Amino acid sequence: MSLVLLTPFDLALAAVLVLLLAAMSWYLHLGVERRLLIAAARSTVQLMLVGLVLKALFAQTNPWLIGLMALFMLAVAGIEVLQRQKRRFRGPWGYGIGAFSMFISSFSVLFLTLTLIIRVEPWYQPQYLIPLLGMLLGNTMSGAAIALDTLTRGAWDARGRIEARLLAGGTWDQAIASLRRDSLRAGLIPIVNAMATAGLVSLPGMMTGQILAGSPPMEAAKYQLLMMFVISAGTGLGSVAAVWLGSRRLFDERERLRLDRLRDQGRDRG
């Protein structure tokens, strides 16, 4: 089965459905029509631009340009993690904890996947590296953002209990151990749910895309299974790193709880 190529007219027909949804929002006074149209326009521009960039990268396989693209993706993911925090860390820590956690988890899992599992030659082939990195970063970003947000919100709400444990002689590690477990559990819930419902409730995006492109369904299922396993590893490692770094930052060298290192994003906006 060959791939059916889409024309601009085909995409315009699909865009009409978004316009109808915006009109329905306006008629029902839902108030989301403007955000919906902006999001649709933004995704159109972003995807068309990345399509042009990837076309150029695929044509030359330049490792420096591929590395630059990977770092750009990491930088944007770090900003997204930062913006999803209600109580973010002040200064460079707010951005650095999320970006560093995603770097060590996504990039290490990606390198192992390309060299030991898929065995691509050379390992930085952009046709494999960029899509795999995008899926790893996207899922790790969600896990780290949820875990960090749970940690900082929980530390703020349970500050009395944490300080009581410190006064009773506990270490900073013991004082925040239960909250750290809750944060990690929250960060892993999305990928656990995705694995549990894959194939029963929905067909994941990678498998669907390969089937639409003409790949045999069993091969598409194998690749999807591979990605779910490596994504779960990357999300887990990223969440662990983010929560450990974040929880350590909440205490100083004298093991005092330092909530003054957090900034309430909602209050800043108000």
TrEMBL record:
**Membrane-crossing residue ranges in chain numbering:** 12-29, 36-58, 64-82, 94-118, 130-151, 188-213, 225-246
Q: Give membrane topology per the record.
A: Multi-pass membrane protein
Q: Keywords in alphabetical order, please.
A: Membrane, Transmembrane, Transmembrane helix
Q: Where in the cell is it found?
A: Membrane
Cleaved signal peptide residues: none
Q: Which family does it belong to?
A: Belongs to the UPF0014 family.
The name this protein goes by in its record: Iron export ABC transporter permease subunit FetB
What organism does this protein naturally occur in? Candidatus Thiodictyon syntrophicum
List the taxonomic lineage.
Answer: Bacteria, Pseudomonadati, Pseudomonadota, Gammaproteobacteria, Chromatiales
